[in-house]
Structures are given as structure tokens and as C-alpha cells.
Amino acid sequence: MTIDELRELAENERTRQKQYISRILYCSSAGCLSGGSDSVKAEFKKAIEEKGLGKTCELVGTGCLGLCGEGPLVLVQSADMTLYQHVDAKTARRIVEEHIVSGKKVEECQIDVNGPFFSSQKKIVLENMGKINAESIEEYIAAGGYEALAKAVTEMKPEELIGEIRKAGLRGRGGAGYPTGLKWDIVRKSVSEQKYVVCNADEGDPGAFMDRSVLEGDPHRVLEGMAMAGYAVGANQGYVYVRAEYPLAIDRLKLAIKHAEKLGLLGNRIFESQFSFHIDIRIGAGAFVCGEETALLRSVMGRRGRPKPRPPYPSEKGLWDKPTVINNVETYANIAPIVRNGSAWFAAIGTQKSPGTKVFALAGKINRTGLIEVPMGIPLRKVIFDIGGGTPEGSEFKAAQTGGPSGGCIPKEHLDIPVDYESLQTVGSIMGSGGMIVMDSTSDMVDVAKFFMEFCMDESCGKCIPCRVGTKHIYMMLDKVIRNEATEEDFALLQELCVMVKETSLCGLGQSAPNPVLSTIRFFKDEYTVKLKRATEFVPDEGNGAQ
Amino acid sequence: MTQQDGKKSAHPSGDNRFKLLDRAITKHQASGYSLIEILHVAQGIFGFLENDLLMYVANALKLPPSRVYGVATFYHFFRLKPQGEHAFVVCSGTACYVKGAIEIQKVLEHECGCKFGETTKDGSVSLITARCIGSCGLAPVGVLDDVVAPKLTPDEALRRVRLWKEQKKEVAA
Questions:
Q1: What is the pTM of this model?
Q2: CB < 8 Å to B40, chain A
Q3: Chosen from A202, A209, A252, A367 to mutate, greatest number of chain B CBs within 10 A
Q4: How far apart are CA A498 and CA A481, in angstroms?
């Protein structure tokens, strides 16, 4: 494959698409599939055939359309865009008979595509969702896919490519926010005949489904990003480590790799250069700790996922002790747009310190749940009330939880905080990989803390004592608080233990496990103190309870 | 190859399923690094990982049995016990928790007379919790015999379990 061949392929595909007057794009992501989008697809197919529209109307399974709570979603692309929600077989038939045939929209199922849910977003990573067929490499190429790889491999030196990523200021989207360009540069500079590129798709945070949606809806974008990472650092082998809980994402990835290999976009001598790159899939087996990079690498090698002390970092000694680049799905998904549009374009989006966008999975007690992508630095209030539509009627916003079991709760008084790496840290939470769960007054924050601690306790790999024993004891203490049996002494001990576990654990899991407890104590201390057993003889007054 | 022939005699059961497993092992060149891949295949074929099967894998990959057992027990996804006829998975992710998954778990435990992570005495239903299946927009979510049930309620969960029980009775009758 040469660049000209790639462009020709893109042009042919665009011509093919133009022959259709309208395209029906139904959401084929896991969310809508479980809502029944499969039977909707079957009905569309039948209706199109019956009406003899096979030549003018195309039916396409596309990536996540965002509003997962209102699924199954269907986007009709004709003269304009029309988005339908809660589509069942009956509505599907009506869409074909009324909208496609006679141009009359089915108004009661329509969602306004210019509404606040859509207009406040900025799509880079998710730009192809609702545009292309998730299982077609041709459609990805027609949307500008693999052009960035072609440009990188044929026109840029590895240093130049890394320079672009550095100038763009892209930071790791897995949550920690380490500058991607810097990481690549370290690997590029290390001397070794064998290097690796690994994609962390072990999205273990409960309440997060960003990576799943990207892999299901636009897998080639991730492969393209990984190939560019390989070119930049001088690696010829990549691995995608993906959760076993995401069977659809695994299938789509496999298919995407097969298609890319067939066209020579992965494999030997890509774009007739000296650069070769192969990608294999490794399937996880349900261990949260494998989201930690050193644990993940051990799991790729077929071992128990137990972390190692760093340094040495994977960029020096990773897979089989060779220098290894390891990034999150969303990070790789950002590479192609940066190379295609230039670093200046990317750096202008978001804030100075955190350029670009972030994908969030919005869920919990909120009116519009789903997948969103917003520019960094957007006020949290805007995310929850404009995009998410606020909490359902009759309930009041209490806190937003970000960062999953490693993160914290952001209460009402901090709603105007900008969403970026540093600002979230100042209120004791973290950006995390992008789960955002909204809680209302029905959520008891001590119980929330216990929920997360139970998770961390179960998922602790057991290698280091602070995490293995500490999480268990924190859990038991929280349980004691909930049973109204804890004294103020216990409460003080709980806080002390949290700090100890945070400071002495080996890896990110233990170091961040106490965050939900510390964060809820910081903002919702009352909910703890009212549950404490009152030693009445010592505390005659209420209010200035625990210390 | 001789190694594998040796093992076949260790399994004189004539169980054809081992041929499938052998094929996967050969595909991965019997590399110890592919242990997790092989265990996935083995569980896919046999349903769960018996000690015998783990020994078989250990021999084939030339790994110490302790390593194979260690990996099989470390990861939640691998089952060492057989599952019930039906599997009721309740997602225990944060979004499902906030939307009341715990209530669903309680009524199911009460109805089935066993805890999550266990199988009913008659072997009909296994109760399983999942670590976020990523359909948070549809919380609380259950997965009943691999079919996702979105926006589950305690009543609906009970109805579905009772339906299974009735079917079992009908079959027995």
C-alpha cells in the first residue's frame, strides 16, 4: 500500500457512500445492543428490502452515539441529521416508511441534535462515532484514517513525530497525566534491538466505559495511534491488553487488525518504508490491579498481575525487560488527529497545562447518562447540569465521583471547578480514566466509601502489606461506623490508617485506595460523626464531635 | 510433540475436547507466556478449570503446577468450580450501586438461598457479581445467561429467577 493507493481507496469509498441518498446509522455499541438494537437492525433491513430502497438507503452499524441511557439510538443522515431515541422494531419500520420514503420525520422519538447535550461537547477522540461503520476499514480510511500514519512514516523522522506530540502537550489519558511525548522520547533514546508498544485497555474502574466505546466504535484509530508510537520509538511489536468483560470490543479489535493487515497498514514494510509493526491482542482475566502498568505487563507475559516497584519504569525495562511504551486507549486515539491537524491545533483546545479533550462516562443519578467528550477545563457544573441535564426531578445533587475507587467525591460547593488534572487534585479527587458518577441525597457517603473500599480490598493483589491488610482494616472500620459501633478513637484511627496506606503502599492501587474515604471525610464529615457511638460522659455537647 | 503425545496417554478418557485444547496450545507454540490465553481457551471448552485440567495445561506448557494454579486463582474470570445451569450476573459497578444493585442482590440471595459467588443447592442457578460490565448508562444491569438485562428492578430479577425454576419443574415433570 502506498499513500496514493490509500487516497484512491478513500476516494472510492466516498463515491460509494455518495450513491446513497440516505444512511441509517444505528448504534451498535454494547449499551444499545443490550437495549435491543439487534432486533432494530433486523427490522430496518426487512423494511428497506420490502420498500425496495436497497440502492438509495444504506444501513450502517456505528459506534456509540453518546446518549446511552436513551438507547437504542438511531441517526438518520439525509439532507440533515436526525437522531432518534428509544427505537424499537415498530419505530424502525416507521422511520423507513415515513422518514426515508416520504421525508416526514417521526417526531415523537426525535432528539434535538443541537441541544445542550451535543452542543457543549467537543469531539476529537469520538469524532467518528455516528459517522462510520465500526467494522469497516474502508469507511475509516474515507474519514481520513491512516493518513496520519502515512504522513508520519513517509514524511517525518521519529524525532519529529515525538516533537509534534510534545508540542501538542498531550498527557496520558489513563488518569495520571504523564506527558506522552516525554514517555515516548525516553523509550526512543533507550538502546535495545527489541522494543514494545502496549495499549492499556484494561478499563477496570467500575463506572467507566470510555475505552470500551472507543474500541467498539473506532478500533482502527487506536491501532493507528499504536503504529505511530511504534514508529516513533522504534518498536515492531504491539500488544493490546483488553478486558475479558468486553467481548464485543475484542471481536471488533480482532477484525480491525485482520483488515489492517490485509491492506498492509499493519505488518511488514508499512507504506513501503523500512518500518514494520505487528499488533497482537492479550485478553485480561478480571483483575483490577492489571490496570497498573507493571502488573499489566506481567499479565501480558502470562503471569499473575502483581506490580513491581518503580523505577525501573517500563520505558526502561518493560515487557521481557525491554523498553516499552504503555499508554491508555484514549491516549492512542488522540495521536492520529494531532498528526493530521498539527500540534498547534491540539494545543489550542482545552487549557494550557491540559490541552485537548477528555472523554467521560456520565452515569448515576443524572438525567442524561452516556458517553461525552468535553474540552479540558470545562466547569464541572456545565458537565453535570448542561450536558447531563442535572439530577432527576425530586432529587438534589450531592456529589460527583471521579476517578473510581482511586478518586474522590466533589461536593456541591466545588461545582465550578474546572475539569483538568491539577484542579481536580486540589479538591482531593483525580481525573482518573473518565468515569463520572453523580450521586444525590439518597447516597450515604460512608456507605459509598465502604463500597469502594470493599472493591479495593477484593482487588488488592496481596503483594505489599499496607494494601493487603490496610484495606481490610479500613473496610472493617467503615463497617463499624455504619453499624454505629465506632467510637471517636476508632474514627481517628481510621484517618491515620488511611494516610499510612496511602503513603506506604507499593503501587497505585494501594496508594489511592484510601482516597474515597479521605475525600468523603473531608467533605461529608457530618455523615461520619453522626454515626459514631457517643461516649456521653466525655462529649456532653454535640457538634464539635470527632477529631 | 512427544511431550503432548505423552499427555494424551495421561488422559485416556478419549475426551475429544482435549484435541481442541491441544490445537490452541500448538498455536501458541506451547509457550509459558501464553498461559492466560490457554486458560481462557480451556475454560471456554470445559466450562470450568478442574485440577486435572490445570495439571494438563502445566505439563503442556512445561510450567510448575503452582504457577498455573496461582494464575488460575489470581484472576476473577477463571472458575475452578462448575457453574449452575443458569447464571445470574449482577453488575456491582459504581453506577449500578448508586442505582440500587444491592437491593437486587439481597432479594436474589434470599430467593435462591445462597450467597453471590455460589450456586443453589440443586445446581440450577449461579449468582455472580461482575466488576462493571461497562453498560453504566443502563444501570442497574444484570446479565442472565449471557443476555444483558438493562435497568433491572428487584421485582423483575425475582420474576426471571422464578421463571427458570418453573422451567426446571416442567422439564422434571
A1: 0.93
A2: 244, 283, 285
A3: A209
A4: 15
Neighboring chain B residues of A31 at a CB cutoff of 8 Å: 135, 137-138
Under a CB-based contact definition with an 8 Å cutoff, are residues A278 and A269 in contact?
Answer: no
Asked whether residue A470 is assigned to any structural domain, the reply reads yes
- What is the ipTM score, two decimals? 0.90
Instruction: For B171, list phi and psi in degrees, rounded to 5.
Output: -60, -45
* Residue numbers of the domain that contains A462: 446-529
Q: Are A411 and A460 part of one and the same domain? A: no
Is A31 in contact with B138 (Cβ distance < 8 A)?
Answer: yes
Count interface pairs A-B at CB distance under 8 A. Answer: 139
Task: Considering only the beta carbons, identify the residue of B74, B78, B148 that sits closest to A34.
Answer: B148
CA pair distance A40, A22, nearest whole angstrom = 17
- Sign of CA pseudo-dihedral A10, A11, A16, A22: positive
Question: Does residue A475 form part of some domain?
Answer: yes
pLDDT for B87-116, tens place per residue?
999 999 899 999 999 999 999 999 999 999
When CB atoms are compared, the residue of A207, A303, A455 closest to B71 is A303
Query: How high is the pLDDT of residue B125?
Result: 92
For residue B65, the model assigns a pLDDT of 97
The answer to the question of residue A432 being in a domain is yes
Over the stretch B35-46, which tens digit does the pLDDT of each residue have? 999 999 999 999
